[in-house]
Amino acid sequence: MAERKPIRWHIGVFLAPAVAVYTAIMIVPLFATLNLSLFNMVDGVRAFVGLDNFRTLFGDPRWSESFWNALGNNTWFFVVHMLVQNPIGVALAALLSSPRLRMAAFYRTAIFIPTILSFVIVGFVWKLILSPIWGIAPGMLDAVGLKALFAPWLGKEAYALTTLALISVWQFVGIPMMLIYAALLSIPDEILEAAEVDGVTGASQFWKIKLPLILPAIGIISILTFVGNFNAFDLIYVSQGALAGPNYATDILGTFLYRTFFGFQLQLGDPHMGASIATAMFLIILAGVSVYLFAIQTRLRRYQF
Predict the structure, then answer these.
(1) Which own/partner contact pairs does 50-55 have at CB distance under 8 Å and 24+ positions apart?
(2) pTM here?
């Protein structure tokens, strides 16, 4: 009779290749980028410069102005998602989880469909929709008597970034909706029935019973929103190009990194400064995730059902 292998042996057999692949495509490039940020060209020779690249990035006016502008835009891009996308996602999930709602499956599918669309398609279609020349937005606003409100939002510095953030919200609101919807469905019926017996129903039941139970899920969605938005690049690049116009009003860390590392038009690429920007992005995201994990997640009450 063949000897049965312990469970840990079987887990190790499948885990080892996964760790190797993850190390090859994630860990090694990460440390290579960190290493590249510590070097630069000195008199035509690649030399170790330590933190000089970061001093240049944060202190040299030629670099710091662009970096802080991109960081500020990135922060606003994230804030719009937190204040618009996630609350709408929670509200939609609450509505769709109602047993009285008909065609809930159709609504879930319709709201989630934009999530699977390519950034290229989304950016191109919305540029056509909002175009003051051939877009349908002016005509739609005119049909309801609001044409005076129309403006070339993607062409105005004051509105371009917010417009793109709202387009991104439209595309990705289905993700928090589905995650919160799943969290709501995981709440045992016994708890809800007990609340109904006590007279807690409708909106009051959501605020007093359901919302406290799904706070851990909302926390996870918040940190995913943070990581996703500080890694954003595609929509800005497709809609406004690498220069993130108008006049860098939509420039975020991703587009700033792209122009620096690979170069664009007359600007030559600088891999060392590009790696420094990538390292700064990594540290910002790491700091945000650490604050969430150690200062917020540990305080969220977990309920075992």
Answers:
(1) 53/272, 53/273, 53/275, 53/276, 54/276, 54/279, 54/280
(2) 0.91
Q: Rounded to whole angstroms, how far apart are CA atoms 163 and 250?
A: 10
**Three-state DSSP state, 201:** coil
Three-point CA angle 282, 283, 285, nearest 5°: 65
Contacting residues for 239 by C-beta, under 8 A, at least 6 apart: 123, 126, 127, 154, 164, 167, 250
Q: How far apart are CA 122 and CA 284, in angstroms?
A: 28
Residue range 286-293: mean pLDDT, rounded: 90
The number of residues making up the chain comes to: 305
pLDDT digit string, tens, across residues 241-267? 999 989 999 999 999 999 999 998 878
Contact of 218 with 67, CB cutoff 8 Å? no
Neighbours of 166 (CB within 10 A): 17
C-alpha 32/C-alpha 279 separation (Å) is 10
Which tokens belong to 105? Answer: 């499956």
Which bin fits 46, alpha (ψ -120 to 50), beta or left (φ > 0)? Answer: beta
How many helices and strands in the chain, by DSSP H and E?
Answer: 16, 2
Tell me, what DSSP letter sits at residue 269? P
Amino acid at 2: A
Residues 49 and 40: beta-carbon distance below 8 Å: yes
